[in-house]
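Quick note —
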Amino acid sequence: MKNITSVLAISSALFMVSCNKKAEDINLENKLIQTVKTQSLSIRGSELDPIVRGITLISYPLESDVQKNGALYKYDMGEDLYDLTVNSSLKTFSYGDELEESELEDTLVYKSRVEQRIDEANSFNTVKELVKHVVTVGDLRDRVMNNFMDNQLVYKSLESKFEKANEKVSDTLSFFVITEGDHEGMMLMSPNDDFSVESIDIEDCEGLSEVDEDYLLTDFISEENLESFESAVESCDSVEFNEDDMETVAEDMSEKIYDFDFEEINQEGPFYAAKGYITNLLNDLETFSGQKFLSTGDCKETYLDGGADQSLEISQIVFNEQMNGFDKLLLNLDLLGSGAKVYSVENGLIKNIKFRKTILNQDVVSFDIIGEDVVVKTELGLSNMKNLGVRLIGDANFIYSNGRKTRGVMKLELDITNKEIFPFDIDSL
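Predicted structure written out below.
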């Protein structure tokens, strides 16, 4: 089954450049229903983090938007950005007896899908190429996110082994150094009335590695404690390389998206560089055409990259337990550059919410976003995809008060609470 975003984007392009209304309708008919990728949402509403992780809302251009005074719109994304977002490979790690890594060269397939420059011979192809760039970069970001999450599983597995070994030390072992007498400097593993002792804090594998077994006064240590000591040493030895491996995987992950040490996103990595590329492309097209195409929304991503307007509520979506209705739908949007505003059911700026099942038992939701000069009519397929959480993706129809009509795409992304992509605590903001 094809990716819904790709098919919807291409169908949107066909809509925009078609001259015949009937042809438009044929191109669009049932596109959403046929291409939704979902597993019938075998997830409950209570399993989702209500804070929206990511928001995409883009209006695609018309042919008239890409030509001005006889000149066609052209754009060059630059070699460095092209190589980073289109012509690069992704590392994935696996963990068995030792850490292994492999190169996924399949990222290179995108080089055949988009060129570095948008330089077409006519307006039809220019619009088609613009849409292709937007879709491809969105697909690339999903690929990077998938790779990031695959490596996060490896990281967490290593971390778990390391933490269990440390807990074995802190939970089962105690050490005391003898401070006086013939055995001064020797160590016990429990207090003894025959010796003056001081407790030593050894709480992890690193501390245990500094304990010299020759300094244990074994004649005064129980067999049980000695066995616990040997078991802890064995556990720590088995994971002695885990910390280095964790750093290797974490470094790779921070290069892609998020730096765990500094708790910040990497805006130079492919995930956010790709986002910046699309923003720059659509802003450049706006300068050329005088029309606006990009809407931004405050969510986890914008809080983490410093771009959020924190004077308003962050975007939130709360599904009911059956995932067939909203208990809350609140989107903090800068709709086509009109300024940040809260759009919600409560304030009347989101209306006409409808959930339905397709004949293939796929979940679709539609609603209208009421802007000052535009109404956005959405029809979004719900999906629960590997590593990407729950996403609402599909068509956005822009109907302007001046009679202009365009098609576009909308994507809303939510984390599953036990599999969050970004560490995020709204209460700490």
